[in-house]
Design goal:
Blueprint: E1 40-41, E2 49-50, H1 56-66, E3 70-74, E4 80-85, H2 86-90, H3 92-101, H4 110-113, E5 115-116, E6 122-124, H5 125-128, H6 133-143, E7 147-152, E8 161-167, H7 168-175, H8 188-195
Parallel strand pairs: 2-3, 6-7
Antiparallel strand pairs: 1-8, 3-4, 4-5, 7-8
Length: 196
C-alpha cells in the first residue's frame, strides 16, 4: 500500500470574510409562467413528515425544526395518509374536538386534526407540465383549496406517487399578490368540519 501524503495547509490572517450563499435568481412568476414553477417538487425538496399518533405539540415542533407549515402524515413510509398544517394545529378545530370529546388539548393527536388523503384534491403531474400558473389559480379558486397534491402516474415498475405540492401561500409569494378563495366543502365530512 502506498503512503498517502497530507494536504498542504496554511495560516489565515485574523480577518477574512465568509463565503455567502447565493440567492438563486429565478425569473419572476406570472399567470403565464409554467405551472411547474409554483410546484414544490418532492424529488428536489425533502418532504417533512409526522406520524398520525404524534401529539399536536410534536407536530408543531417538527414544523419549527423543518421550517415548514405543512407535514405529510405517514404511518409507514412512504404511504401518505393525509396532511396537517400549522392552521390545523392552532385553529378552532382542536378546541372544538376538545370540547366535544371532553379531552385535554394535550390528549389530541395529529390524526384528530389532519386532512385525510381522501379529502385532498390532486392534479396529474403530466397535465401540470403543460399548464400555466393562471390555470393553477383557477383550480385553487374553483375548489377553494389551500393545497393541491401533484401526482405522478405509475411508470413501468414504479407505482403512482405524490410528486409535489402546490400551496396557495407559496403561489402568493411567487406572484407577489394575495389569492382570494372561498372554501368549498365537497363531502359530508368537510361540511361537518366547517360546521364545528
Amino acid at each position: 500500500m502506498s503512503p498517502v501524503s497530507a494536504l498542504h495547509t496554511f495560516r489565515l490572517s485574523h480577518s477574512i470574510p465568509l463565503a455567502q450563499a447565493r440567492h438563486l435568481q429565478h425569473p419572476p412568476v406570472t399567470v403565464d409562467s409554467p405551472a411547474l414553477s409554483v410546484m414544490t417538487d418532492l424529488t428536489q425538496v425533502k418532504s417533512a413528515t409526522v406520524g398520525p399518533k404524534s401529539s399536536l405539540v410534536q407536530a408543531e415542533q417538527t414544523m419549527i425544526y423543518q421550517g415548514v407549515r405543512l407535514l405529510f402524515v405517514v404511518s409507514d413510509m412512504p404511504a401518505v395518509e393525509g396532511l396537517v398544517t400549522a392552521a390545523d394545529l392552532s385553529g378552532e378545530a382542536p378546541m372544538q374536538i376538545v370540547q366535544q370529546r371532553g379531552l385535554h388539548h394535550d390528549e389530541l393527536c395529529v390524526a384528530d386534526v389532519m386532512t385525510p388523503l381522501a379529502e385532498l384534491d390532486a392534479i396529474d403531474h403530466a397535465q401540470l407540465g403543460h399548464a400555466k400558473v393562471g390555470q393553477v389559480l383557477a383550480t385553487l379558486r374553483k375548489f377553494g383549496r389551500h393545497h393541491l397534491l401533484v401526482v405522478q402516474a405509475a411508470e413501468g415498475e414504479a407505482p403512482q406517487r405524490i410528486r409535489g405540492l402546490i400551496s396557495k401561500s407559496q403561489v402568493e409569494r411567487q406572484l407577489g399578490t394575495p389569492i382570494e378563495l372561498t372554501e368549498i366543502a365537497s363531502n359530508f365530512s368537510e361540511i361537518e368540519k366547517a360546521l364545528l
